[in-house]
Amino acid sequence: MQGRLLNGRYELLAPIGAGGMGQVWRARDRSLGRTVAVKLFVPSASADEGEREQLLARFRQEARAAASLDSPYIVAVHDHGEDDGTPYLVMALVRGRSLGQILRDGVRVPMADALRWAADVCRALAVAHEAGIVHRDIKPGNVMVAPDGTAKVVDFGIATFIERTAGGSRLTRTGQLPFGSVPYLAPERFRQEAGDGRTDLYALGCVLYELLVGRPPFTGSAVGVMYHHVNDAPLRPSAARREVTRPVERLVLGLLAKAPEDRPADAVTALEEILTAARSLPSGPEAEPEATASPATDAAPSGPVPFDKVPPAMTDARPHSPPSLTPTPTPTVGVQAPADRPPTPRSLASASAQPAPSRAGHPIPLGKTTVPIAPAPGRLSRKRLLLPAVLICAVGIPAGFGVQALTAAGAASTSGTPSGVGGEAAVLDIGVAHSYRHVGNSRGTDTHPDAYEKAELDAFRTQQLRTVRSVFTETLGAKQAARFRVVPVTADPDTTSRELLADHPGMLAVIGDTTDFSWVHDTDEAFLPEISTCAEYAHADGAFAIPADEARQGEAMARYLRSQTPVRRVLVAEDKLWADRADGVGTALRKGGIATETLDDGPEKVPTSRIPSLVAAARADAVVVPTGSRAGVWAQTLRADGFKGLVLTRADSDGTCADSEDRSKAEARDKNVPAGVLRTRNYSGEPDDNLPARGNQELYDGATALATALKKLPPTDTAATSLRHTLDREIQDVSVNGVLDDISFEKRRSARGRPVWFDRRENNTWTEVGKVDAEFEPTRP
User: Fold this and answer.
1) What is the structure's pLDDT at 298?
2) Which pTM does this prediction carry?
3) Exactly one of 113, 120, 137, 621 is catalytic; which is it?
């Protein structure tokens, strides 16, 4: 396909996105000498000649309608045609990122940005609806943000064309879901009603909800989400994010009204309500502008970045923020801004008015009021056995994979006692950790990562850095966030906290995939707090953990069993010394009202032939089988022996941030798990989620807790050693609202009350069936 010349004019250069109906390519318009985006549509193979002619006629009609739309908030359609039976659409190539990519990077965005982008979408919808065109597929992937901060909608009219095509007799199936992205579809779409422009406004409400909260109004299986759209009210945005103002909440819930007549009458009315809600935003930390800029890269109207096509922003020695929306040159989070500053942002109130340049901490005019413009945010189980004084460290790890500094040499602090200029506090380091085992690192003397693996690590690391930076700016404000420099570090058991602090004496904490740090804090000077967002391991020696630990998963199992099944007696296939400890699965099940039996030895030492007799002796209604490679062995043996009870297991504890290699191993191992097995999962990512973004919601919540604790640090010069101990105490007292749930820590430093998801093995894959928060909530009706 690469190099194909469409109608002698458009040369396909490289794929930049794909979907169910075809592909998007970066192409060269030879006639005009410009780079464009070409969308190819693939007709159904089952269509006969008459149907193909009808399809092409529909395509030309919709393409002409889309090309007639003239708005700076709609990606321009330059041309359309058909080459060798393949319809194609030629569009402007937008420099920037889609809202979907922004959400993957930052989970959620500052409220001012969310409202500004929603206003731009309304301006696009107003033009289209006036022309009689309903988009029908408004979603984050179909909204691009240009380098100047303008949001532009893509695919106008194309959704109608595809939906009509899919409605053909050969393509229609009984019970088929309507065309579009289910998380953003209006209730009337599921009732097979024609709908009007207000269906686009409902989809905009879903997108705005996700920008504010970090997830769509309803999540889960397609059928479950459909049910929720039609029947259920979403969680109020302010319950998921406390700073959401009442006018903003009323706006969102109004757009999400079940009945079209209860929504804004049209896009113009919705735009007025957005501008009114924007005036309610306080001038707080979230509203402060971020000054870091980064060069924009050519982007498709949709589609993730392939690992082997990581743009320069992901592979530079210094990470780059998403394109900044303010011209302020002050560095944020200690990362120096490039020499070329981003364009001046636009006002929400007008598409054409050019506001006066803003200064740091000062809002940009919005009509007769002011709205501060905020930036776009831009393994297998390895348990650490905890002993009273030491951690058992991994051995045989190659040296040489220590700390990798984000900034240039000499940029890090060089004194254990920070000192500022003019009485101001010095910049302090926050380490963002990734495992030395992640593909892309040389994990052994015979391991030489290829370009794909290196790009995967770069993408993952860049994802982490962007997320932490955006949270710091949102929580602390740009001025206070600039006190903290975010640097990547490699979690390696051969690197002690003492060695890490020797390189970064001003480092206050590390966050991220910290599992492979095996520190013993033998002195106050070597103490360094850590927040693990990829694994459940916490301990009293400085480590906090965001994912639900074994006790929380056992508690979730008990709630599921008591509310959904008749099971009251369980065999936990773990060594009783581990399962029956204070925070073990067996102890949690018993506290939840489930009787348990455990093993006298580790499950790996139990001969396969003995498994049925152990279950029979325990008189168990259900079995919690081991995690890892033994899960399939136990489950298959039980089924072969005729055991009819429930079989449960737990997902790999490090699955949140597992790399492609570990995930491939886990998928291969899970092929031995029979259908019907239920598992708990302590992380939010689905098995097929975008790989670099896995664990991003957990990282966002952990960074929110850390940033909230950083607020409490004294503003004056204080020794870093003292600051680290102060920070550790403040983290213990944190109570904040995260994307997934509220964040606070128990005495054992595990996050209290974190959600636990349940998956069932079906059709050789894991399918989510519900989650436990306060109680079991099925994701299927």
Assistant:
1) 39
2) 0.66
3) 137
